[in-house]
Amino acid sequence: MSRLPLTHLFQGDRAPGRPVALAFGPGAEAVVRTQAEFAAAAAWVAGHAGRTGGGRWVLACEDAWDFAAGLFGLLLAERTVVLPPNFLPGTVAALAAEGGVLRGLPGPEALRGRPGPPREPIRGGRLEFWTSGSTGEPKGVAKELAQLDAEVAMLERMFGHLLTAGPMVGTVPHHHIYGCLFRLLWPLAAGRPFLCEPCGDPAGFKRALAQPLAPALVASPAHLSRLPALVDLGGLPVPPAVVFSSGGPLAGADALAWRRWVPGGVVEIYGSTESGGIAWRSQDAAPASADWTPLDDVALTYEDRALVVTSFRAGPEPLRMADAAEPSAGGRFRLLGRLDRTVKLEEKRISLPELEQALEAHPWVDRAALVVLAGPRPVLGAVVVLKARPPGGRGALVRTLRAHLGQRFEGLALPRRWRFPGELPYDPRGKLTTQALAALFLPGPGERRPPA
Which of 83, 89, 226, 324 sits 20 to 30 Å CA-CA off 390? Predict the structure, then answer.
């Protein structure tokens, strides 16, 4: 089926009974939601917004079907759509100070048989994505519907041949830009169904992938690193046709592990809310596969080691990223870590990514993350996930890891405080924030804060 522009989803010749989404009912079978239902739901939202008023609406629908119909209904009503970073009452209330809130739609029975919207294109279309970023501070990023449509067109052009007619299923939230684009907007435009429920837990994952046609999996590095230990991927009836990953770099070992079940490997997308997608890679055993290839509508330059992106999707001006990079062969580039993760302690510059890579090179360490802990004298805290608890107790473990780092780094760069959780504190988007790491070092009940 040919792709429709997002502005023309209700203008094309798609049959009323065409599957738009799959939703699991009380049993194990998926319930099909159709084009006619989607059009009726969007028309109801447009009418509701028109009667209620307000030029800016917070879209706070936890159900992906309600969210998708709500998004296009609000766009039909020419409202600015605010996509919150989470659906907590305080967050929604703060963003809704100047307009309405859409929390859900009437059930399918109440909308059955209602007419769809007029067969006219959506005029304009403005969305505000709110993201916590790496610091935890909320930040709004405005996007025009035309920019999102350009991204969807690029995704179909570059990766559409990897997909079947099976559904898009995802472990990531639908209200952040990656999940919104890959789980909802791309399949809506391309005429493929999407699965309403997320599948981040093992039971949901197995149910989501038990489809007659091979689905496409939209995930994050945090989920892809954990799922092989939780699910017998080899026992799935149909492996995913393709796996997409975004939100951070996927470890090479995890990429190779997924190739055992998905021969095409994992397609990683590098980008941000501000820039949209920038580049892609699919890692295999070849060292050069760790480099990134720019997407076909992106131009790149380098400014003081920082990557600078030029594309319609990133906005009218070149966008300087917070990532250091260097060009490599064939027009590709190599990421060197975030520029804002090179910190100064007592006038010494310390690269946190370099320290993390050195820790992960130790045979006892599975994952590591570093954070600067504020205080009268800032120090580094290390959060380390171990492959197995080694003998000798915590003190011996810390001394061993500090000695390992001491072979390459000065004493000032060595972490002073350590935590050994079962896993890193990723958020639902697969992001690892400074706030979440620092919270692991807060004193618990009965504990005293360590001296400065």
Answer: 226
